[in-house]
């Protein structure tokens, strides 16, 4: 659960009276960062709460027993603390342990004789990882499992949305209202021009209506991160993406010569995509349970996908027909890893997870083959290999060991310690005709091992915990694909461990990687902790598609005309995940991506200055940023806002381009685009500005602003003089100057002033 308002952590378990647990608290409600609390139960139950002056954000989930044990061990070795009765008042940071220590309930606090022990840093890292899933994650993804979706909009309340443009050359508007779907209407006659009903299955969070490259287009962004674009005249869908639904795990395979990507997340169904262009192909039902592990396999003429997750059940489908073939039951807790060994017309599936067991299944019949026990913690990685002409399974675990197993006999062959630390993933590779086991760990180390002896063959290190591993062939040599907690993907020569290239962070810590060997070239598919799916050409890392452009609600949409002969018309989308994505408006091809604001984009506008496309974005940190809208180069960061901007617009004043922001407290600020200088401050009515429009009328520049209290204000921009103020019967969601006056669109439709 996330984005919950009005519910305290104390009402949801954790370290309530009588329940053992750990609580880390810091800050205060009235401070800019608010007050945060992390509560960790002895059983791994996790609750994180952030309370600010504008609302409450609550996340819950579970952490692995290995992390709980490490934290408790460190706390028991810490210097003595204080009595809970000695707790200082907020905003002092405190660590409280209840019911877990021989000395009784104990508290540590900054600025006292008992400062917080070093283990508080690990808890702070966990707190940040939960609240900011798109940021670099120091803890391995295998340790943390959140319930439900990732971050939602601050108050979680659906709002009406509107945009003004044209359809068939006539003024028109787009309107989306909670519970009523979305649609287009004539601005002057109010006649409907088409749309959806409430049953469309999409909860709109952004709309845009624009004319680009001679086409009138309509776009809708959804609460789940989906973006759809229609021809506004014909009503035909031109292109679109599906929501991420927390798509943290991926698989890849080639079916009928086409590279496919499969993705699953904390909830929802398993999705299938064309890797090359991101086109959605359909769903594989897991009854909304999501998936923590995915695997593609070829078994004779069948193309199979297996998925498993929190319900401890493994599901297997025929990809071509979508038919579910098997429901494999036996695990006692969440399944975290899957691997398949193809043996001609037969195949063996291996599954493992939090119960520490490895189960082998006959995929032809769905029957269990054997249960392998020996690990003392979560089994995080599985890989099949050939050793002395017999199939062998290798496994890695949070207990820090690697083990090998005879597949035919179901017996243990060998086991060894990897040298300390949590092992997070495993793969198998052949080097000079001999097999090797590959492991990744919490410290960013990738190691290769002789499966027969456990001898270390070589290793390499990189920043960020290793969360995922895959092996592929590139130009006849084996390569390792390594996904890290800092969001990078590193492709290495397996024999030398030399780094071939690095893909930068995009969509959060990498949680899963897979490779498909298609005819047109191998495709690398990545899933991230924040829910993004990315597809790249393995050879050089060039991005092919982004099936899930945003990992949270789409906060703003806008169309842009072509910027010169080499830059096509664009659709720009901004999200609560902090990213801005630029796509070809007509076919959806990805053009540009930016990490604009870490805590989410609250407003966005497109403009032009000196022949260049400009982009302005606003964020929760009360700044406005300017960007080159074609190349993505960052420009000035504009400050001075008392509250985050909720509306932005470009204009011109005395021949110079300006950007104008309307904030959540009604204040309107104006900056010069060329030098970033603030040129004006206009005082509003104390409620959020929902819409802005700037217009030059006979040489005089006017600014109209509509706010949440249903008030419309009209200013003379050069002098800052308030010309008019009108109370309306609706919140002005979109405004446009017309020959007969001001057109205002709000819930219920349009009106003329």
Automatic annotation (TrEMBL):
Keywords linked to the UniProt accession: Repeat, WD repeat
Keyword DNA damage included in the entry's annotation: no
WD repeats by residue range: 304-327, 328-371, 372-415, 594-628, 659-681
CDD domains per record: WD40 (cd00200)
Start and end residues of each stretch annotated as Disordered: 1-35
Superkingdom as given in the UniProt entry: Bacteria
Biased composition (Polar residues): 1-10
Recorded coiled-coil stretches: none
InterPro entries linked: Quinoprotein_ADH-like_sf (IPR011047), WD40/YVTN_repeat-like_dom_sf (IPR015943), WD40_PAC1 (IPR020472), WD40_repeat_CS (IPR019775), WD40_repeat_dom_sf (IPR036322), WD40_rpt (IPR001680)
Protein name: WD40 repeat protein
Species per Swiss-Prot/TrEMBL record: Kitasatospora kazusensis
